[in-house]
Give the backbone structure.
Amino acid sequence: MRKRRFKDISGRVSGKLTAIKRCDDDPYKWECKCACGNFVIIRTNNLNTKEDIGTKSCGCLQKNTISKSKYNKDYLNQKFGSWTAIKRDTKTRQLSWILQCDCGRLKSFSARRIYRNDILKCNNCELIGKKFGLLTAWKTDAKDQFSIICKCKCGNTNAVRKSDLVNSNTKSCGCVGLEIENIPFLKKYGKLTAIKKDLVFKSYWICECDCGKLTSYHRSSLLSGKTTSCGCEAIKKSDLIGQKFGKLTVLKRAKTSLGKTAWECKCECGKKTKVPSGYLKATQAPSCGCLRKKYDGIPMKLRIVYTNMKQRCFNKNLPIYKYYGAKGITIDESWLKDNMLFLKWALKKGWKEGLEIDRRDNYGNYTPQNCRFITKTENLKNRSPWFRKAA
């Protein structure tokens, strides 16, 4: 690659600066002499002959401008509301003063804002004296301007971030956590008695239930009252011994092969079986399996016909109920007591897949004398006038 040729600008004048020689370390910078006698190093692109562009002095022009400014006044020890001017802020280029609030907070303000008396209120002062849980804001922390030293109800003082106080993230010096940590020995929580701290899990306590069982619980669940026993109370509430569900009578508690809770039941047919509690409560007519044998040879779709017939007459949540059960239409008592009578009658009457049950008299009930099986097209012709309008 060809070496880049740098332009020689020695002798160029930019304001009070005159370029003398190029720097050996950086070819993009020039050593310049100011009219005041100081030597400074300036980048080549900042040495411009135009009046408004580039660097024009070593900094003496700015000092002269600041000294002539109307904002350049001595505000030392002057009061501005709750603020007091302490010293000049030398870290910034503009004229600034460091002010201290009565609460101890330090903040830098420009001389222009001080001249116009445009000084905001101290946010920390608004919090001083207020209570946040067990803490009372006392004064601003001298080491951290965003923290406030607070006095706790227990007597301790602690520095807390202002945002944590406002957002209610911190409400104590930590004494509440210590009270929770040190659960009284042998204290009762419902049926549980705290015996000792769990060595494996720091926040857990080993407790003994009145039934004699030892278990480990989190301290917060004990103090809040969420946990009051090892689970023996729940077992008593869900005791199903002696209750009857369909054809099954509960004899005693048992467990399945997978270790889950189940109940040993006796069926009306004499057979004993293990059944989960969810099956007993969810199923309308549970059995040991003998009910399945009862329906051997009977198509499933015919059993659905019987179920739908009952739903139309007795299920008030069904939209079509207003055309059947609400009109007083019901089912023959013998069919309701034993669904096998209906199923055998349907097979004798020539039911087959694709046929629908129909009442000859649309204002009559579902009885052997009033019912028949016809096709869907024939069933649509036999609808009541009010049903046709609704359809």
